[in-house]
């Protein structure tokens, strides 16, 4: 079932449509007056602003929301507007279905969201453990590290309800990167932005492991064919730095 936005999972642990943010009172949003921009400007000419290398971490992104006084033309409303480019699902040579763009996409532009059912940890773990080695896994676990040492986890499963993002393949040298973007509540939208200029006809991809734009390439762990006695799936991205196997996250297989 196609859904452009996140929906509540079967466990009902989180409702992504709930509005909990108060919103700003601006007519024209700008730093530092706008409460939604208290962490700094998010976008410049529809492009996400790069992380300051000196900071060593990404600033949280909050867009203006339903409760804000500013209008739909506010420059701090990008991801919530949805798809702005023509994309196409196509059959790849070795990777099954994939997603490509039919038009040029400039570096920094929002491309699409990875949307699906928002799950709690226990339901995500139950679904993962019910899969067989032949099943495709669409569940993504995103972990955000807070300044106080806490970790916020978001689990999205577009297996049965999702959007075009579910067709994105992994690449060890991707042209997209993922950023959690919050609009109406603390449940983030998993937004994918262009990491470089992307030509028309080019396949779109991101790094399933989350390393890209987060951890230096030099710190990558060498790939092995098995982890926890479970065989890993081969990677066919064809990148020069390909690790040979798709990323593996064992956290949902471990006991709580």
Note down, in words, how this protein is organized:
By secondary structure, the chain is mostly beta strands. It has a domain at 7-18 and 83-206: Beta Complex (Beta-clip-like). It has one helix and 16 strands. The strands form six sheets. Strands 1-8-10-9 form a four-stranded mixed β-sheet. The protein has a four-stranded mixed β-sheet with strand order 4-12-13-7, with no helix packed on it. The chain has a two-stranded antiparallel ribbon with strand order 2-3. The protein is globular and about 55 Å long. It starts with 6 loop residues before the first strand and ends in a 25-residue tail after the last strand. 30% of the residues are buried.
Strand order within the widest sheet? 1-8-10-9
Any idea what the CATH architecture of one domain is? Answer: Beta Complex
CATH level-1 class of one domain: Mainly Beta
Instruction: Say which CATH homologous superfamily of one domain is assigned.
Output: SET domain
Largest sheet at a glance?
4 strands, mixed
Total helices: the number is 1
Cα-atom radius of gyration: 18 Å
Category by helix and strand content? mainly beta
The rounded distance between the terminal residues' Cα atoms is 31 Å
CATH domain fold name of one domain: Beta-clip-like
Organism: Tinamus guttatus
Catalytic activity: L-lysyl(36)-[histone H3] + 2 S-adenosyl-L-methionine = N(6),N(6)-dimethyl-L-lysyl(36)-[histone H3] + 2 S-adenosyl-L-homocysteine + 2 H(+)
EC number: 2.1.1.357
Enzyme class: transferase
